[in-house]
Amino acid sequence: MNSLRAHASGAATTLRVLGGAGVIRPYGPRTLVALGRTIARWGTGPAGGFASLAVREPDRVGLVDELGELTFGEMHRRSNALARGLAELGVGEGDSVAVMCRNHRGFVDASVAVAKLGADLLYLNTAFAGPQLVDVLEREQPAVVIHDEEFTRLLSTAHVEKRLIAWADTDRGTTIESLIEGHDDSELAPPGRHARIVILTSGTTGTPKGAPRNEAGIDAAVSMLSRMPLRHGWRTHIAAPLFHTWGFAHLALAMLLGSTVVLHRKFDPETALRTVEEHRCQSMVVIPVMLQRILALDEEVLARYSLPGLEVVAASGSALPGTLATSWMDHFGDNLYNIYGSTEVAYASIATPRDLRESPSSAGHPPYGTVVRILDEDGREVPQGRTGRIFVGNNLLFEGYTGGGSKDMVDGLMATGDVGRFGGDGRLYVDGRDDEMIVSGGENVFPKEVEDCLVGHEAVAEAAAVGVDDDDYGMRLRAFVARRSEVTEDELKEHVKNHLARYKVPREIVFLDELPRNATGKILKKDLAHWDEETS
After folding, report:
1. What pLDDT does 214 receive?
2. How far apart are CA 518 and CA 483, in angstroms?
3. Of 165, 448, 190, nearest to 318 (Cα)?
4. Alpha carbons 417 and 205: distance in angstroms, whole number
5. How many other β-carbons are positioned within 10 Å of the β-carbon of residue 28?
6. How far apart are CA 459 and CA 441, in angstroms?
7. How many whole angstroms separate alpha carbon 159 and alpha carbon 155?
8. Judging by beta carbons within 10 Å of its beta carbon (0-12, 13-18, 19+), is residue 8 exposed, middle or buried?
9. Cross-strand partners of 483
């Protein structure tokens, strides 16, 4: 009886959330039959998602990039032709195809076409170095690599026989466009299996790992939409990289919501604002460093863009430093939603504008269908307010890394790799990575708290802190700061001392022009940890 009630409650929530988002809409009988047949044959991944949009609204614009507009019908036909071309190159069910593309139609063409063949998609980070690419491609063994021409030289060190150019800067090599133009774009027969999506971890602590997922289905969308008011038919500027979990999540949401996806190959802060304004985007998808770069624009530039029609700014990928959330909302209105999660567990919690106004450092509350627990080293739940390891349970957990291994599990909950706590307000607070905590003179220090304090100083643009060996204290804290105006090391130490316990004051502060980051905006702390070696 309880399970029946839970099922009924879940179904009611799904209907309420999808109805509120405008996903549940009146269609004629013929369209409904065609939709049902399409989803049954192609699934809910890229193949079925975009094919269903071609059934629902074939003539509506589905994608805008630097080359122009594509309707949902055109996107469907392009992917049919490209799938036939890829099949001639030897791609078949169960194969893997690597995609190393910036944000443009080629990424979407490749994703849908590969999925229509029943092959798996491996998304490569466009900021990978040569050795990282070699390691990943040797481990994953893709049948074909689809990449932008700018990455040709970088890929030359990897042993890949078949390559296809997605964005061409010259006339050299076989391109996606040439395959599309040279092949039939009529309907395809569906494969016997559905594609898996393999997202790579950020690689901030070593070689990136492959985290595969099968089709998430409706659950992923309901979870997100339960705390983020995205709507059917919106125009969405996805500025976050599509190869990253966050960017791809919104490409997947677009399949359900019928969103028009607006893309630019490379992020530029003023271009992002102009894009939102010119294309009348109601939502924008970013990583936090993009918000920082936008707010760092001259006031004269920022004043040109009020963006009253921008209703949701969806941020994820790393923590929001200091007062970034309130600074953004003070300028552009209360439209910021910050999502905490990981490649492995998907969405753990979502902070709404209200959460960020009342507690800017919080990660908000778990969305629908997600359980978050704070556990100690023995797997026991800790009291409210006590710091412990963050574990998450939902229907979106990944299946284990492609190279073997997984995250720690306790009673069906998966570790995020972070430590945090639930505050008295019921919100989740993330203190940092569980392997970043240092013990200095017997006291536990989490770098994130010190970083947020430093960023709170008006002269600091960004900050990072790492633990380094110390003969007297075992470990000590070293901070790295990028300044926006003149300030001394002693002044910043005094600032930290005035706000935090004395043992949290960094023993040294190093000034850099900018902090090293990967393509998804995460600070590369492994590089900072070896700063002494690199500068000696």
Report:
1. 67
2. 20
3. 448
4. 12
5. 8
6. 30
7. 8
8. exposed
9. 460
How far apart are alpha carbons 393 and 397 in whole angstroms? 7
**Distance between CA atoms of 417 and 414, rounded to whole angstroms?**
9
pLDDT band at residue 337 using 50, 70 and 90 as cut-offs: very high
Distance CA 31, CA 37 (A): 10
CB 272 within 8 Å of CB 315 = no
DSSP string for 433-478? ETTT-EEETTEEE-HHHHHHHHHTSTTEEEEEEEEEEETTTEEEEE
* pLDDT for the residue 9: 54
pLDDT per residue over 393-426, tens digit each?
Answer: 988 777 778 777 778 899 999 999 888 999 999 9
pLDDT: which is higher, 234 or 498: 234
CA angle 83, 89, 93 (to 5 degrees): 60
Q: 388 near 421, Cβ under 8 Å? A: yes
What number of H helices and E strands is found in the chain?
19, 24
Give the contacts of 293 (CB within 8 A, at least 6 positions apart): 267, 269
pLDDT at residue 471 in the model = 65
Which residue ranges form the domains of the chain, and what is each CATH number? 70-214 (3.40.50.980), 438-535 (3.30.300.30)
> Look-up: residue for tokens 């921008």?
310
Q: How many CB atoms lie within 10 A of CB 178?
A: 14
Laid out side by side, the sheet with 260-262 consists of 68-71, 61-65, 260-262, 235-238, 283-286, 312-316, 336-342, 346-351
Cα 121 from Cα 250, distance rounded (Å): 17
- What are the C-alpha distances in Å from 15 to residues 44, 165, 167, 230? 18, 42, 40, 15
DSSP string computed for 26-94: ---HHHHHHHHHHHHHH-SSHHHHHHHHHHH-TTSEEEEETTEEEEHHHHHHHHHHHHHHHHHTT--TT
Name the token pair of 285. 């998808």
Rounded distance, CA 106 to CA 126, Å?
A: 14
In whole angstroms, give the CA distance from residue 93 to residue 87.
Answer: 10
Give pLDDT, residue 487.
93
328: enclosing H helix or E strand: helix 324-332
